Hints:
By secondary structure, the chain is an alpha/beta fold. Helices cover 26% and strands 22% of the residues.
Amino acid sequence: MEERAIIGLVSATSNEPTSSDSFTFWLAPGVIVNPFDIVEAEQIAHDGMSRTFGIVTTLEHTTDAPTHLANYISNDFGQVGGEPNTVRQGTTIAKVAVLSNDKDIYMPLACDRSVRFADEEGIQVALGVDKIDKRYRVPAGLIRLSNGTQAVVYLDLRYVLGPEGAHVNITGISGLATKTSYAMFLIQSILQTAEKVGMRDKIGVIILNVKHGDLLSIDQPPKGGLEKEQLDMWERLGLTPKPFDRVRYLLPYGKETLRTGRPNSFRLPEKNWMIYAYSLQDTYNKLDLLLSQIPDPWDTLGALIGEINAGLSDPRTGQWGPSGRWGKVSDWSTLLNGEPLVDTKTGQSQKVGEVPAVTVGRFRRILRRIIETRQSGIFVSNRRKDVRSISEEIAKIKGGEVIVVDIAKLTDDEQTLVFGDILRTIYSLYAEEGSESEDLPEKVIIFVDELNKYAPTREKESPIIEQVLDIAERGRSLGVVLFGAEQFMSAVHERVAGNSSTLVIGRSGSAELSAVHYRFLDPAVKANITRLEKGELVLSHAIFRQPVKIVFPKPAYLQEGV
Length: 562
């Protein structure tokens, strides 16, 4: 085996000593090193030598010139075309953050210790991957060093799906960070890894399609296949480039659906799709989700929603069953225009329980706007048997299945209802009511883009935020895992991002990176994130001591416009 070349020597000075957390080395002439390269340096051990691994954070070039003016003068007082009168002695130095030591020795490195690029095995040791049981190693991308060395980056499945940790948050500038593509790649990687160890049937996946028809053909291969470079990357990761299987699509009812039979979607999947809608019977106990984005500082709307929920529920079963004053309520129209919300003699809103008439009037105006004036067609008077209920379909999820719920053409209020309905259904299955289904998977991954719409940092409390926070904080122990993506992590509730064991950051602006959400990043790493190329991501995982830069292959399914 050819010995790897020494690329520099550790340098410690009186002003800049090495430490247990960092060191500096100067580069041999002609050597090219870049930020995020992983290097190893020799460290003394009781039984010989050990290896200290680190990640390059920044590079500087220094010379013997005391000031920039000295350099100006040495070039004949600013003559840019000639040879300098005094040739400066200089070198490039690399600053390194320590990742690990293969014998757990964290003494500061001595000056003049040899530094090399880490090899593939060394990169795994540096990241702590060698200590992960192979059953739990999930390929998450490739590290590429400046000398051409490549290594697979693995996540620990126990810190992605629980019980040690859970949740993944992906952020970055739209179009450059390829957030959805990476989330879909990671989900495919998890499913294939689980399949190898016989765990595929223990994982279910729910994906929300929020942009055009991007995720409405994930069970179809890409036209013309993938380029050789992409295929090679899939193979290098030990994965098979293939579309998702066992996929079921839920598409929204629209204003033209009754006439055309087509859902309100940008694209129609080739197979395994069904249409969903919301009647009052499906929604009466979820009105708090539907009105999540409506300010209610005194909880007056909340009180009325509670009255409606109680009035339309059968007290014995807790299911739909209007009785008493609510006995004539059967659909949206009779709720909004009949007893007990409206005095049918005068046509005016009236007091309900302890809720004043003025609040009832406000509720009717808001609800009429949402379900009549501005609705996309998803709200129906009575849901036909061939039109499905989201909560009923989600409750049927089986291990190994992937459910895609299309919300791309829905209004913001409708999207909030659907997302909240999914979260509440899954949460109740795992945390509250339980399920008699033997097919219920042990773990459920829920992926949604534009997470900031549902858990914004500026909001204090709302039913949808409470639902997201419950899953972010308790999902690890329940087996409910949230994969969220957004352009700006600073726009997401800090407790949601803070509970994610894995953070993935694409190219972002310096103003965004100054937010508290990114305080775990070294300033030099933040500067490098502003220069990331398309397809490059910075990955922070619970077992890594420092974030690393990765690349990943394109998804192996048919994408919109491709």
